Amino acid sequence: MVTSIAQKEFVSIRRDRRFVVLGALVLALLLAATLVGRRAAAAAQQARAAAQHMVNEQFRHQPGRHPHRVAHYGSFAFRPVAGLGFLDAGLNAYTGTAVYLEAHQQNSVNFSPAQQAGALLRFGELTVAFVLQTLVPLLLIFLCFGAFTEEREAGTLPLLLSQGVTMRQLAWGKIVGYGRAAALVVGPALALAAWLLAAGAGAGAGPLALAGRLAMFALSYAVYFFVVIAGAVLVSAGQRHSRTALVLLLGAWMVGCLVLPKATANLGAALHPGPTKAQLDAAVHEQAQHGLNGHDPQDRRAAALKDSLLRRYGVATEKELPVSVAGLTMAAGEAYSSRVYQRHFAALTRTYERQNALSAWAGLLNPYQAIRPLSMGLAGSDFAHYVHFQQAAEAYRYQLVQRLNALQAGMGYGDKERRLGAATWRAIPPFAYQAPGLGWALGHLLGPALALLLWAGALGWLGLRRLDKMKM
Amino acid sequence: MSYILEAKDLRKEYPGKLALRGLNLQLAAGEVFCLLGQNGAGKSTTINLFLGFIAPTAGAAYIGGLEVAANALKTKQYLAYIPENVLLYPHLTGLENLALFSSLAGFRYRESELRAYLAQAGLPAEAVARRVGSYSKGMRQKVGIAIAVAKHAQVLLLDEPTSGLDPKAANEFSALLRQLSGQGTAVFMATHDIFRAKEVGTRVGIMRAGALVDVRPTAALNAQELEQLYLTHMHD
After folding, report:
1. Within a 13 Å sphere around the CA of A8, how many CA atoms are in the beta-carbon half?
2. CA-based, 20 to 30 A from A95: which of A31, A296, A300, B31?
3. Is the distance from CB of A27 to CB of A189 less than 8 angstroms?
4. Whole domain around residue A223: which residue ranges?
């Protein structure tokens, strides 16, 4: 019964020129966004990989130098483009692409596309996610608003119900039929994305991991479209006139896709204000002052460290020490400033997470705000992935600088006058970022996933059950 | 005697209006009952109560011995409904509409069988594969009949089925009703058409202001007597 109704809806839609034109337009947008997005992502990835290779080579080919000079020479860590970033750019336009790795300094990721692009980027990019989250629901609203009202207006509902069909069966049939039509529009774009991924493996993740992410991405949107379709069908079932149903649904679309996301983002920033970059840098600097300063021979704590070393090695002067006091002081200072930075970075991350959590909770009120973080997270372009990269870059920086400090410490007294050979730098492994896996991503997306499933459950189970009590 | 369609003290009230006042009626298999009455007399309300589309305020409607209000889905298996204006899906062909409605009733037919039902209902062969959007009212009505026949319903509920049909189509419709009643199908038809009621009905009832005021076997009356009886009741 449901299958018959679904088939009827699907055939009717396919034969409706209005939908064919609108559907073809949305499909063309999706295909264009997929191709353009993939091309842009591939170009960005190529540029970043080339830059990473260049800075790695520059680091490796440094001449014989003092290790601390090498630590200040530093290197760059370029953030690879997320495997599905071409489908959902998420925060990529606003988060940076590269971080400068140097001694004593924990730099943030800089050079975001938004910094380098014109003002047009502020209006948003045409990405697959934008079309899926915003335009496809609009298409579905135009498709579904008359699900029941048109049956009432055309007078076909009594004939249908007289055949022994329940309103709920009718609604399910329509949902399945509209769902098939939606798949006809969205499916080719996702198939193209899968083919593009298979043809040229994405950066930072293996093909299996990307396939898993793409499957979850498609599944999430399937649930989202179910929510939109079921919601629209239910609204239509509750109205007598198509015009009223359309106005209600368009109003819900505007509130859900335009008003609520901005309102909750502003509310989140107001409730949990974060420091500016200057404030954060100043706070880190101020607290780092309480640690060891390897560049200041008059530093009291450096002197204390020197005394303890003299005692430990049972010698009277620094000259007799087998290690470089400056190198060990640098290492201790780095450990301290790194702890300070980590504490501040964790606090800042918590603030942003609280802001994001408000938006995630809003997913319980608004399915758009559930699919958005889910989509970004699965694409690898959300805040959690950004933080993951930032932490990986900082971990590498710390390990690199401490390795150089250890080299300096091993040079013994008078290290400042000596150099280490060029081969030393070639032995240091370059920065290699491993993007987190699907399981890690899903762990960060439980809230929005649950919100979307609750929406689907509430509409599919409770909402459609109510139809049985509804009169013609 | 068991009746395929029955109303017992069936009553329907809307806020500020009594639409049906305690209807009592029985129909046996093969009987054609024509309900005459002006607009607003309660004819469509009666049909909607038998269809289970509205709930009675008091009393009960029965189809196949089952109370409609308590067995809304089950009783629909026994009946077929043809409204005044059969409205089908314009993007589907006559064949596709019939296949759809038959499958909803639990019948899946081969294309040849569907074509045979449409031919039996009098739909021209050239029209069956055309979209219903291009059909006349008479052609849609024929698809409606085919839907009812293909359902093998024991009861036909017809609400002004010949209204707006040309004489030829109306005659064909009457012939088909006679054929179905001859096969044992009970027909309950609300109509304004006294001539058609006399022609196909085994009994006629006259409804006025929600009450069934007269019931006569059609064999006992000629068309003029029936018309006179109707007019008398309408002017009381």
Report:
1. 29
2. A31
3. yes
4. 2-469
- Token pair 């620094």 is at which residue? A318
CB atoms closer than 10 angstroms to residue A354: 13
Q: Could you please state the CATH topology (level 3) that the domain comprising B5-87+154-235 is classified under.
A: Rossmann fold (3.40.50)
Collect the ranges in chain B with pLDDT lower than 70.
Answer: 1, 235-236
- 3-class DSSP state for residue A290? coil
B221 within 8 A of B229, measured Cβ to Cβ: yes
The partner residue sitting opposite A163, judged by closest CB among B87, B92, B104, is B104
Query: What tokens were used for A184?
Result: 């006809």
8 Å CB contact of B87 and A15: no
Is residue A219's pLDDT more than 90? yes
A266-283 b/e (C-beta count within 10 Å ≥ 16 → b): eebeeebebeeeeebbeb
The predicted complex's ipTM stands at: 0.85
Residue A154, chain B, CB below 8 Å: the answer is yes
Q: B63 pairs with which residues across the strands?
A: B5, B66
Residue A15, classified by CB atoms within 10 Å of its CB into exposed (0-12), middle (13-18) or buried (19+), is middle
- Record: contact B87-A4, CB cut-off 8 A: no
Instruction: For residue A163, give the nearest of B88, B92, B105 by CB distance.
Output: B105
What residue ranges do the domains of chain B occupy? 5-87+154-235
Are B89 and A5 inside 8 Å of each other by CB? no
The answer to whether the Cα torsion of A462, A463, A466, A467 is positive or negative is: negative
